[in-house]
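Now for one record.
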Amino acid sequence: MDKLPVSVLVHTLNEEKNIRNCLETVEWADEIIIVDMYSDDKTTEIASEYTDKIFYHERMGYADPARQFGLEKASNNWILILDADELVPLKLKKRLENIIEEDLGDIISIPRNNYFFGKVMRHTGWGPLQDTLHRFFKKEYVFITDKIHSLLVEREDARIYEITHEDEGIIHFNYVDVEHFLEKLNRYTTIEAKALYEADEDIRFRSVVNQILGEFRNRYFKLQGRKEGFRGFSLGFLMGTYRLVTYAKLKLMKEYHSENPSSEIEKEYNRVALEIRSEYEE
């Protein structure tokens, strides 16, 4: 198989369940770069079967800070960014090859087929043509920030080319079940709340209520999540909950003047406990 002049960047943390499937779909690339956040499982052992370009980045709780780090390690001009739970179908590989040969653009918008609780989504904002990402690009046209869920910083003169066929999209095994969603929700909302706290941002309660209700209305009605049955309802509700949890964590940080309000709250609980205990000593 002739290799394409592409550097594939994959960022990992304890992805032994996913990484092999991901890398099996990009062996056509001239270079595979793994940026691992010190996994505790067999992620890097498995990855080493596909590439010797494995680098390490401190754990941050999310992948974005490692993306620019990985980009700077790439030797090819064309870059493809993937998460370990994503796959590249053959039709997408062939389209990327055509884009390179014909020089159709500098930054390529790719559809993403998101699996949610076991089924691919067609609506709610997570449908393939609703969730399009600039994941394939010439590296001189892009800079990646370290903010969570950040977008690429792109040169104004970049030519954007859009892939518009769903079957030429990335496959994304997004959330396995409710427990998986809530685990990620807890981690990401803490990161976002800390960023808002450090920036001394404030969010009004009325604004949060509007965001929660708006999130559900937008996903369930405007983006036709109702057609997805309980999955559409669940996604709209859970994404609204994401807004609420971020707000609640920020308010606690501000109230207790700490990024770790739980330690301050535990001190208060201990103080109350000592008062109650002292009643038995009188």
Summary: Residues 3 and 28 are 5 Å apart (CA to CA). The chain has eight helices and twelve strands.
